[in-house]
Amino acid sequence: MLCVTAIPFLVSFATAWWIFKYILRIAIDKNIVDNPNARKLQKEPVPVLGGVAVAFGIIAAMVVGGIFCDMSQVYPLTGIMMIMLYVGVMDDILGLSPRLRLLIEILVVLALIYTTGFAIDDFHGLWGIGRLPKWFAICLTVFAGVGIINAINMIDGVNGLCSGYCIFVCAVFGAFSASCGETAGTFLAATCIGALIPFLCHNIFGLKSKMFIGDGGTLLMGTVLTYFVIECLHSGSSAVALDENIGLVPFTLSVLAVPVFDTLKVIAVRMFHGRSPFLSDKSHLHHLLFELHFSHIGTTCTEILLNLLVVGVWRMAYTLGASIDVQFYAVLLTGLGVTFGLYGYLIYIRKRNTRFYHALLRFGDRTHVGHSNWFLKCREQLDKE
């Protein structure tokens, strides 16, 4: 199992780190940048091809990793990832309509089902439901896959949030795959983590070397996370052999809780106010945390810790022997609490101008570490490469 994690991690990390500067130079020379506007948090144009560097790292690791172990199970995913990368980069450069992107995402998830032979076709005991009819499984998989892809895309509003969160999710799914003896899932998780870390470093610490992951990166990683969910929930999942009382649906929902529930909240708020759900605004949780003076690093760490809390609640419910249904309700309530509930509460105390609100502002101010010696040294090192 060591070669399944160490080799792909090192290869993807080294490749992404090496190629990052060349992708950055292309983005600057061709003016492929994300321009600031009223909704976005940056004040200057920022290059937006980070997803391409991540993709190079993943592909390099898959090529090398195939020498040491059988990766045939994830190879069909590679082509689909490249399609989503291409679509995302075209969206970054040209700007695709939301409806065209939605259609492409539906077709891509259908291709993922066809090429891998997997679908969310089993509830694994939730509400007493097992295998699902094929037509329903395909519809459910498309709905879930498109939802996951867009949820990952929508959290890309703060430096380090999307990449940091994807590292967290890949680490959880990778550890779970390893415990189930799933070589392909463990390999893919290690590969993605290795490719994302160099980008994360430049995204957080870089000034001259800062680059956004862009729609190319978010759509690519959204597709990878969709694959993890499908692999976990299909009827032949090896995770079932671990324990018949393990709630696979609650587990996958807990890992993706913050972006999924935050996206549902954003869509609900937009529709409640009579706006299109495709219309971008500042109603995400990370926007509110930023208004509370949280830094980019502080916002990123807060959302990951909130999601870790949801995973911890699922783990505690499972460890205590709760039924699969109870595990699901625990995850559902906690997920709603850290998104809908927390957002509503923060809005409430802001309107009331409470003492706790001002305490949060002071805490948010303390998360700004951009002038710390260690931060400036990291920036200097990355910018001069």
Could you please describe the fold and organization of this structure?
By secondary structure, the protein is mainly α. It has one domain (2-383). 72% of the residues lie in helices and 1% in strands. The chain has 15 helices and two strands. It has helices at residues 2-29, 50-68, 75-93, 98-116, 134-154, 161-180, 183-205, 214-233, 248-255, 257-272, 285-291, 296-319, 324-352, 355-366, 373-383, and strands at residues 33-34, 46-47. The chain has a two-stranded antiparallel ribbon. Helix 12 (296-319) runs antiparallel to helix 13 (324-352). It is globular, with a radius of gyration of 20 Å. The model has no long low-confidence stretch (mean pLDDT 88).
Write the layout of secondary structure elements.
Layout: H1 2-29, E1 33-34, E2 46-47, H2 50-68, H3 75-93, H4 98-116, H5 134-154, H6 161-180, H7 183-205, H8 214-233, H9 248-255, H10 257-272, H11 285-291, H12 296-319, H13 324-352, H14 355-366, H15 373-383
Antiparallel strand pairs: 1-2
Helix pairs in contact: 1-2, 1-7, 2-3, 2-7, 2-8, 3-4, 3-8, 4-5, 5-8, 5-10, 6-7, 6-8, 6-12, 9-12, 9-13, 10-13, 11-12, 12-13
